[in-house]
Write a structure and sequence with these properties.
Length: 361
């Protein structure tokens, strides 16, 4: 590092010590070049990892260039940001400014997103606000498809009605995914079967009279939290007072108890407890979710899961809350161009989907 550049950085450090740094202005002063060789490399990232882990002590003169995410401390996310820059997934640390100030996730999971434009592959999608990774696994005797989802804006996680209308004529999950520009979509909750109570989709209340007492509820709030409620547990007034609801599903049952443990007894008809194709939504923390589809009724390829097995699967995936959606022949996962799973009997037309897309304006 030449003396002039070193002097400028000492001046910047003095300002850093006197004034709090935040936002884009802070990011402009932080370049991640810890060894002063004029380049940001994987060696800088490795050193940041050691500092974040407490293995190496940081020289205070590096404070203004080590904290590239602007949180006033050096964390593993700083190292991840440097690696993103090194591998071409980030043009400048300044590009992180708007992203990490978003509603959800903040600086966490920086490596899950793309900062140089949206990237879509056969197994996922990444942009600055949305990350979806699709994997296939076997659980017991069944083929399971898991979409691991991170969103920085809750409006990325949406619902859509068939034909774009409440109680519209049914259509396939593939058609709805294509019509709504979905990155990934799964079967919804066949809400028309439970239309005796309120339905909430994308923040809009439908049939705003009361809450169905027949089914457990799955509720996604505007702040990114997801909760399940046992049937009859909440009145409409209780729900409205519990927070701003973004989505409310009315199929059920809930799949994990209040402590996030698997369940063996469920609030549903015994006829759906046996081996069946399944659809479920899982919750880890605000901004991190999963959508799961399990093929069934297709031995030896895939037998389907009992409700108890589905509960165990969501627990083993690490979810802290989970909710069963419409399954059987309806259970489908699509990226808008193809069906990712193999629905029983080729699938059927449905009333609604849960899907991921870019944030609403």
């Amino acid at each position: 590092m030449n003396r002039k550049k070193f002097g400028l950085r000492l001046a910047s450090l003095a300002v850093f010590l006197l004034l709090p740094l935040s936002g884009a202005a802070a990011l402009e002063k932080m370049d991640g070049d810890l060894d002063g060789n004029g380049r940001v490399t994987a060696a800088d990232a490795a050193r940041l990892m050691r500092i974040a882990a407490g293995i190496e002590t940081m020289d205070h003169s590096l404070a203004s260039i080590a904290d590239v995410t602007g949180n006033l401390s050096v964390t593993h996310d700083d190292a991840r940001a440097v690696l993103l820059l090194c591998c071409g997934r980030l043009n400048s640390f300044e590009d992180l400014s708007g992203a990490i100030e978003a509603q959800l996730l903040g600086e966490s999971y920086l490596d899950k997103f793309s900062y140089t434009g949206a990237v879509k592959t056969e197994n996922g999608y990444r942009s600055a606000r949305l990350s979806v990774s699709i994997s296939r696994m076997r659980f017991l005797d069944s083929a399971c498809y898991v979409a691991d989802i991170y969103v920085r804006d809750i409006t990325c996680l949406r619902s859509a009605f068939s034909r774009g209308e409440y109680e519209g004529r049914r259509e396939t999950a593939l058609a709805m995914a294509e019509n709504n520009g979905a990155v990934i979509a799964v079967t919804g909750d066949m809400y028309t079967m439970n239309a005796d109570g309120a339905i909430v989709r994308n923040g809009v209340y439908y049939n705003d009279r009361r809450v169905t007492k027949k089914k457990d509820l799955g509720v996604l709030y505007r702040d990114g939290t997801f909760r399940t409620y046992a049937r009859g547990e909440m009145t409409l007034e209780d729900l409205k007072a519990s927070g701003e609801i973004w989505q409310m599903w009315v199929f059920g049952p809930m799949l994990l108890d209040e402590s996030g443990e698997p369940m063996s007894k469920f609030n549903c008809n015994s006829s759906i407890l046996g081996n069946n194709p399944r659809t479920a939504i899982g919750y880890y923390s605000p901004g991190h979710y999963c959508l799961v589809v399990v093929d069934g009724r297709q031995k030896p390829y895939s037998a389907g899961l009992r409700m108890e097995d589905l509960s165990q699967l969501m627990y083993e995936l690490g979810c802290t809350a989970a909710y069963n959606l419409d399954g059987g022949q309806s259970a489908s996962m699509s990226d808008g161009q193809r069906l990712i799973n193999s629905p029983s009997g080729g699938g059927r037309s449905i009333t609604d989907i849960v899907y991921l897309g870019e944030p609403l304006a």
